[in-house]
Write a structure and sequence with these properties.
Elements: H1 4-12, H2 14-21, E1 38-43, H3 48-64, E2 67-72, H4 76-85, E3 90-94, H5 101-107, E4 112-128, E5 149-152, H6 158-171, E6 178-181, H7 184-196, E7 203-207, H8 211-215, E8 217-219, E9 231-237
Helix pairs in contact: 2-3
Length: 238
């Protein structure tokens, strides 16, 4: 780990990764010769954007001649600490502009931004399409319908932190709603169960994310950008 040449090689994959990840036409990197060392790619198993990119990097780096280790970690705090300390070489989907900016500020001297592969990501508050409200402000006076809960993902994640520190104060939701964190898998299971029974439910999400089309979800208008403005998704390295 921690080789300048290794980081340069990872950076050289940017165009290939970008093309593959956003559905553009791209070609595989040419195969390398010999063992160029080991690159450790860190990710959270429940965060699908990072998982997809981790396997993409594994494929491309192995073609260049590297040995790749995929390191599944259990929280964003642990992930960024491992990245800063060099236990992980690269995190392949950092929401470093806004959602995870606190970690970048904390560990910035030990991180290297290799660039963004997607520029139009943003956090959202979402409900099933059958729910008859259209904006975050419409949640006021409706807490009984939603059991007084807004579901989010792992504590310490950018999404949960943004909801707690920005969304709730911006719309004064704290008197009526409780932010209920869990794992992404648990939140999606709760969401799917509610949809099966056509119950009202509101969750924090983000775009791009597969669940919008798969589950039939819509965003609530967020004019105060309580869930953050548009940001990029970055390859972040040690």
């Amino acid at each position: 780990m921690n080789h300048p040449t290794r980081i340069a090689a990872i950076a050289s994959l940017g165009a290939v990764a970008c093309a593959s990840l956003v559905g553009c036409a791209g070609q595989d990197a040419e195969g390398g010769e010999g063992d160029l060392g080991t690159v450790t790619v860190g990710f959270l198993p429940s965060w699908t954007d990072a998982v997809n990119n981790a396997y993409l990097l594994e494929d491309q780096l192995e073609k260049l001649g590297y040995t790749v280790e995929l390191e599944a970690l259990n929280s964003p705090a642990v992930l960024y600490t491992a990245l800063a300390e060099g236990e992980v070489d690269i995190y392949p989907s950092a929401w470093s502009d806004l959602s995870q900016a606190a970690y970048v500020e904390k560990y910035g001297d030990d991180l290297e931004d290799l660039g963004a592969y997607y520029e139009n990501a943003h956090g959202t508050l979402a409900v099933p399409e059958y729910v008859d409200i259209d904006s975050v402000e419409d949640l006021h006076g409706q807490a009984d319908r939603f059991d007084g809960k807004i579901y989010t993902i792992e504590p310490g994640s950018g999404t949960a932190t943004m909801a707690e520190e920005s969304l709730f104060p911006a719309y004064d939701l704290g008197d009526e709603y409780e932010l209920t964190p869990s794992s992404l898998a648990a939140m999606l299971a709760t969401l799917e169960s509610a949809i099966a029974d056509e119950e009202d439910i509101v969750v924090t999400l983000w775009r791009p994310f597969w669940a919008y089309d798969a589950l039939g979800l819509k965003d609530l208008d967020d004019p105060k950008e309580g869930m953050g403005a548009t940001e990029g998704l970055h390859f972040m390295a040690h």
